[in-house]
Amino acid sequence: MKEAHNLARRNINSSSDQMKARNDDRANASRFRNEEKHHDVCLVCGDRASGRHYGVKSCDGCRGFFKRSIRRNLEYICKENGTCVVDPVRRNQCQACRFQKCLSVNMNRNCVQHERAPRSNRLPRECSSPDKRFSYLDLTTSSSFDYNYTSIYPHLMTTRQDMSNSLLTQQVISTKGNKKTFQQQLRLSSFQAQCALVWRVSVLWSGGPHGSQTERNLLLPIIQQSLVPTYSADPTLVSTSKSSEIYGGPNTCLQDTQRHTPPQELCSKRKRDTPTGQLETTRPSQDDFPSSTTSPSLSSSKVFLTSTSGNVVVPTPINPLHPLPVPFSYHVLPPLSSQAPLPPPPLHPMFASPYVQSFFPLAQCSSFNRMTSISEEILLACVTWARLLPAFTALNDSDKKILLEATWAELFVLLAAERGLHFDTSYFLAHMDLTSDDHPKQNQLLVICYSQLQEVKDIIQSFRLLTVDMTEWSCLRSIVLFRYYARGLKSTAEVQRLHEKAHLTLMSHCTRVYPTDVLRTNRLLLLLP
Amino acid sequence: MKEAHNLARRNINSSSDQMKARNDDRANASRFRNEEKHHDVCLVCGDRASGRHYGVKSCDGCRGFFKRSIRRNLEYICKENGTCVVDPVRRNQCQACRFQKCLSVNMNRNCVQHERAPRSNRLPRECSSPDKRFSYLDLTTSSSFDYNYTSIYPHLMTTRQDMSNSLLTQQVISTKGNKKTFQQQLRLSSFQAQCALVWRVSVLWSGGPHGSQTERNLLLPIIQQSLVPTYSADPTLVSTSKSSEIYGGPNTCLQDTQRHTPPQELCSKRKRDTPTGQLETTRPSQDDFPSSTTSPSLSSSKVFLTSTSGNVVVPTPINPLHPLPVPFSYHVLPPLSSQAPLPPPPLHPMFASPYVQSFFPLAQCSSFNRMTSISEEILLACVTWARLLPAFTALNDSDKKILLEATWAELFVLLAAERGLHFDTSYFLAHMDLTSDDHPKQNQLLVICYSQLQEVKDIIQSFRLLTVDMTEWSCLRSIVLFRYYARGLKSTAEVQRLHEKAHLTLMSHCTRVYPTDVLRTNRLLLLLP
DNA sequence: CAAGGTCAATGGTCAG
DNA sequence: CTGACCATTGACCTT
Ligand SMILES: [Zn+2]
Ligand SMILES: [Zn+2]
Ligand SMILES: [Zn+2]
Ligand SMILES: [Zn+2]
């Protein structure tokens, strides 16, 4: 309808054109039935037509040519007398005659619409100094890169690592500076890889030309942070001068635009029924999992998340050309770390704070920058929460590490669901580093990435439909965190006890609060990643 | 040229229309009011409204646009400040602003329903004449093929399919006869993709040059088989002579693997009324899930699985050079199909038979061939079991299809666990078609494949540790099969009832049989894929 | 009537 | 610039 509308508006005499074209078509149709039953011919050049375009059966070439000519209002001049032959082979010899032919067969210029917005919202590479970026690239592709990669994921594996198969080792990609072995590459569990993708994509867009490089920079300190005794923050972590050296030159393209989630205005659909009330019935037995009853200071967590407080080191552009020389190092740090060590409070806001979803609830994370910081916040929240969970803190470092490394990805999704995170899968994928190669196998990767991102979205959506309450979130987190007690921990029994305690807590809570829904517990568990 | 087409199609009086439309907008502001009454105006763009859509008077264009945006969960980004004008001419210039306008006039996203199955009157008739089959083949390799593919997997998706992102579309493999779009390629959920990998690897190794092609050929008939009325075994199913032509030359190593799909199944919307009469909706008993109490004839299933009985067509090496020329074809057939139709027995061995794990339990599936056929058996067992499940049979075809397509991959893993399947991930990967490229991105794909295979192994191992009993397996299967009752089924309530019934059955069973382990139910559920 | 789907004819894309 | 290719649009049907 619209096109007709436009047509009518835009041109008065188009109708006669149309009628003429149509008459021709009818005549042609009947006459050609014999010779050209299925293969229509381009009326301009005689090539095989791909359909009707601008009113005339024509090929894609002539279609595009006509469109470009009209759009850009091009005029051509024939070097001959305007008698050039227009056929599939010679049609590009003379644009003037080709265009003439288009008009003579009644291609309708009014059918060419206005230019539209580009289909891809891909943002241009935003680096002001390409040279430096290239040099940075050269650095990272060298070998030291590999070593770091290996040392970072030494334990990010599932229980078994039967990677010793000789066949596989043959398959190692052996580019010059890129000789990672499979042993090194395959330690991510599927779900971890899944989340790493979400993570990675934001990192990539943030300007790190090498995803894994920045990814390492991000994940390593975060995971290791779990081993830091609570609140015994190491001041060196704050030092930016050193870390920039460690992680490479100060020459990434990342700009400091929208580093932080704008606080309140983003909560578009927030309607919480604030159930902070009678949940403490089960309290006495739950010292391991302080639940929502202890109302945390939400403001504190808010401050932390939004990085508006002085407690948080805010990245400061040192040089306009290098707005964020060490793009992530600051964020790795929990806010309190930059303070003098404090006595551990009994409960940290982070523990229950995720229920306060008002930071970026259903607000569409359309901005990639925003998604980046939000992902980061969520990941950090996972670790922070665990660090502050008394039961977790009491474990030995080795077990802590194993548990967190095994579950961080699941926790990530769980906390994302808790916050009602919303993101656009396609937009994400569009920014991933996967789209530059048209090798067939590239497709498989894209398929998988898409599916996994989509799966995360579905999990989030499913949780949203269940309207999980705060106690349930707490229990679910603990259930996940202590889920893999069978993976060679030192304190297997203790972790299993914690796991089951969380389980029982969840069950009793659901039974009491939702007595009509006997299956609620099961339903929740089924949703876990 | 659609506009010309439409215009012409619509007719003769177009000139008068244009005159009307040509009226100066400013001049006839008053008169315009009248027209607005007569023909309502699209509140979004101001075009002529075709009625109320999603709660708002709107034109067909805005209707379609809103529908697509919601369905695929699209998000747009305005290149301007979000101030673009949305009128009939410019509405396509900025999707972001158009969508914003849709929302601002209160188009209701909840009115957008789930995608339905494609209209079925589309498929070319399946003919008995071989000649026509060939012509059908020709069609299939070109564009109509895409259509078929689309219509086959219309619901193999998670709830959303935001695959329209333009960047992604660039990545499509565009060989001549292989122009699937991403919409078509990405309908597999992550977990389906995961299992498809297991599946695919065997297919690839079997010699199918085109993974997705053969994959489709394999999966399609198997899934559609679920729609075959129980025990109405069609003798033609066994006949292998004809159908190889349908799917391509006999030069593929798969040969007539796919031919088990009876002709009728290809016409998707076969009229089928549930033969079992009234659904036992109100029955409080557990007839829906005949569980282990009715002891099945295990020997029968054993016969089937081990392929040692005369009832089963056993693959026979035809040529030493091609030890398994038709590696899959025979296995597609459920054992009873090769028999004369039997009166439906109250319970089929398949239902509980998987508990008999002794066929290839801990035995290493070192042979790729064996892995191949075992995978297939398991996949077939999934479908067979579902087909013979009374509660499932009673559903309408559409719902059956949706459910099975959504869960087959999970069922695959579940049944694999039930059987104690063991395989060597590394060995698998070594045979996959992923290792020939040394592009860095290849690594990512390998990482993911490995992780996913490994994850399947872990699931299987975890189940093994729990020593799941037969009743539990049954319940778990049903829980999975009816898991996605919220995905736009026709009988949502019924399926949900079934789902919860399985749930309750499992709970009561666990409570009764394992009274000391109150968490057993939860533990089981947590293991589900 | 208002949901849904259909598919020709628009659009844009980007190696070549 | 060319043109093969894929996504998007929307007039027109079906349910
Ligand atoms: Zn032409
Ligand atoms: Zn000329
Ligand atoms: Zn409109
Ligand atoms: Zn705009």
TrEMBL record, chains A, B:
Q: Which residues form the Nuclear receptor domain?
A: 39-114
Annotated region Disordered: where?
A: 1-30, 240-301
Molecular function per GO: DNA-binding transcription factor activity; sequence-specific DNA binding; zinc ion binding
Q: Where is the composition biased (Polar residues)?
A: 275-284
Xref: Gene3D superfamilies: Erythroid Transcription Factor GATA-1, subunit A (3.30.50.10), Retinoid X Receptor (1.10.565.10)
Residues forming the NR LBD domain are 313-529
GO cellular-component terms in the record? Answer: nucleus
Start-end of Low complexity biased regions:
289-301
- Belongs to which family? Belongs to the nuclear hormone receptor family.
In Swiss-Prot or TrEMBL terms, this protein is called Uncharacterized protein
Source organism per UniProt: Biomphalaria glabrata (Bloodfluke planorb)
